[in-house]
Amino acid sequence: MRILHTSDWHLGRAFHRVNMLDAQAGFIGHLVATVREHDVDAVVVSGDVYDRAVPPLAAVELFDDALHRLADLAVPTVMISGNHDSARRLGVGAGLIGRAGIHLRTEPSACGTPVLLADDHGDVAFYGLPYLEPALVKTEFGVEKAGHEAVLAAAMDRVRADLATRAPGTRSVVLAHAFVTGGAASDSERDITVGGVAAVPAGVFDGVDYTALGHLHGSQTITERVRYSGSPLPYSFSEVDHRKSMWLVDLGPEGFVGAERVDCPVPRKLARLRGHLEDLLADPRLARHEEAWVEATLTDPVRPAEPMARLTERFPHTLSLVFEPERAPEDPDVSYARRLAGRSEQEIAEDFVAHVRGAGPDADEQAVLRDAFDGVRADEVAREVAR
């Protein structure tokens, strides 16, 4: 069986101020063409179909078009909801849509109930694990403490228990939306940290032939059988070095055989430029970026006049302008943002406590801070679900 693994479409999302709907429609067309060209037997979409719980109408219309085109191919598709999706909204009509071969898996309680597809070698069981927000599903899975590893492990226990009841030789594919240890993040994924921990070990998914992951936007291999497809389009300049693609995964009679990447069309290249404004405007080596979407970081000691207007004369698709004046490391005016770069909310809060009190928080106080951040995050997710 040949499977096409994709995820993180984020329909309705813009790239800075650029509307990406046409590019997203282009990707859907590419997806359909890939299914035909490579004789794909099943498509899996591992979450974040939409960019937000209540997507704009144009994004809903594009998703509707995608569903019709996939159904017309007569190639089964399995989709799960991600942390950006409203599971309830995405799952509306799942029973009816399933009759057309589009199988939406958005209910945590159904993790152990597979979509069964067959090839010449027997059944392949596809288990959909939608994004599992620990605070909202810990009761469903009977875990004492809310955490990503605990709820995913419990969900996978259900998967393995069901698989054990299937005919010998039944192969298995799991779709999951999570941050797995070893994955490389970018600036465009929403934080899903709980209890100070975001990542779960890849070993959670042991016992299945292939795990199709979503959430991280870079295509990457965690293990041979555990992979991220990444997003088909860039959604932040931190993805400048990404190769946007999907995975073509082959299952033989004994299970996983191999995977190869299929590149996705990218509407425009990305470029991150850094230096003094006059140097950026004059450097002939930068000519190759003149048609790219550009993020320019200006390091001039004094902010130059009309920097964006001057940049766009040479780089007309400049979308982001950052100022980081060159200063000595000991300069007290080094920007607050630079000092906070790469630090978690928990670390920033602990540093604030140390600054105010003269000593950092002890273990109990750290736990209070973690619980506070987790509570706020859980409330935000609950509000999204209820909308």
What's the short version?
The protein has two domains: 2-263, Metallo-dependent phosphatases (Purple Acid Phosphatase, chain A, domain 2, 4-Layer Sandwich), CATH 3.60.21.10; 270-326. Helices cover 32% and strands 24% of the residues. The protein is built from eleven helices and 19 strands.
Explain this structure to me?
This protein is an alpha/beta fold and 387 residues long. It has 2 domains: 2-263, Metallo-dependent phosphatases (Purple Acid Phosphatase, chain A, domain 2); 270-326. It has 11 helices and 19 strands. The chain has helices at residues 21-37, 57-72, 87-90, 94-98, 134-141, 148-163, 277-282, 307-314, 336-340, 345-357, 363-386; strands spanning 2-6, 14-15, 18-19, 42-46, 77-80, 102-105, 115-119, 122-129, 171-177, 179-180, 199-200, 210-214, 220-223, 226-228, 245-252, 255-263, 270-275, 293-298, 318-323. The strands form 5 sheets. Strands 6-5-4-1-15-16 form a 6-stranded mixed sheet. Strands 7-8-9-12-14-13 form a 6-stranded mixed sheet, with helices on one face. The chain has a 3-stranded parallel sheet with strand order 17-18-19. The longest helix has 24 residues, at 363-386. It is globular, with a radius of gyration of 23 Å.
List the helices and strands and how they pair.
Elements: E1 2-6, E2 14-15, E3 18-19, H1 21-37, E4 42-46, H2 57-72, E5 77-80, H3 87-90, H4 94-98, E6 102-105, E7 115-119, E8 122-129, H5 134-141, H6 148-163, E9 171-177, E10 179-180, E11 199-200, E12 210-214, E13 220-223, E14 226-228, E15 245-252, E16 255-263, E17 270-275, H7 277-282, E18 293-298, H8 307-314, E19 318-323, H9 336-340, H10 345-357, H11 363-386
Parallel strand pairs: 1-4, 4-5, 5-6, 8-9, 9-12, 10-11, 12-14, 17-18, 18-19
Antiparallel strand pairs: 1-15, 2-3, 7-8, 13-14, 15-16
Domain Calcineurin-like phosphoesterase: 1-217
InterPro entries: Calcineurin-like_PHP, DNA_Repair-Maintenance_Comp, Metallo-depent_PP-like, Mre11_N, SbcD, SbcD_C
Family: Belongs to the SbcD family.
